Amino acid sequence: MIITRLAHAVVLAIGWRRANIAFVAGAASALAMPPTNAWPVLFVTFPILVWLADGSTAGRWSGAITAAVAGWCFGFGYFLAGLYWVGYAFLVDAKTFGWLLPVAVAGLPAYLALYTGLGLAIARLIWVRGPERILALAAAMTAAEWLRGRLLSGFPWNTFGYALTEPLVLAQSVSLTGIWTLTFLCVTICASPAVLADDKADTRHPYRPLVFGLIVLAGLAGYGTARLWSHPTGTASACASCSPICSKMTNSITRQRRT
Predict the structure, then answer these.
(1) Domain boundaries, the chain
(2) Which value, to the nearest 10 degrees, does the dihedral of the CA atoms of residues 83, 145, 126, 81 take?
């Protein structure tokens, strides 16, 4: 199977090749966020994160350190692709502040990636064989994302759970679970395809996690559809009630310009 070959290539990668795989996977994951909202890409990139943890060196602490490095590379690519726009501010007066652009564009993602590295390291410490390791990754990454949103005043930009807030029907589940539970579900669901490459000795039914994840995703969409249907926004009526006010404001502005 193609997915098995891909998994083996990631697991056996070492050195700069391993770092580059993690970086590219992280950068591609940023496509899941606005304005592209291509969140299905996480069904490819999160399994790579699982295989990177699988390929960490043997030993409890040495494996955690290796996983932390891979997690940092993944996070650096993710935040670099998602925060490049920070550099635009330094181009307003480029002669004075332009030299700070690479510091800001690379420095902030480098710091935020520490949390992703921490998450993968914690996941590696509680790593097990089989489908249960997907839950370990989801729990560790959710905890790391929560810390990122709290420490040093917090900066929860592009938290993984935000990927499942588009379309609007998926966003409705936040009213029940909150963003951190949605982050846990996002990582769990999107990382589940990694199990398809497992050895049969470790996972007897490799399709079950993915099927279960898709059922949960469909359930979130179903709840969102029902909630939107039962709670109409009333946009049309709101616009109708505001239109006389807007008309008066427009006329007032027009008269002021003429005078």
Answers:
(1) 2-258
(2) -10
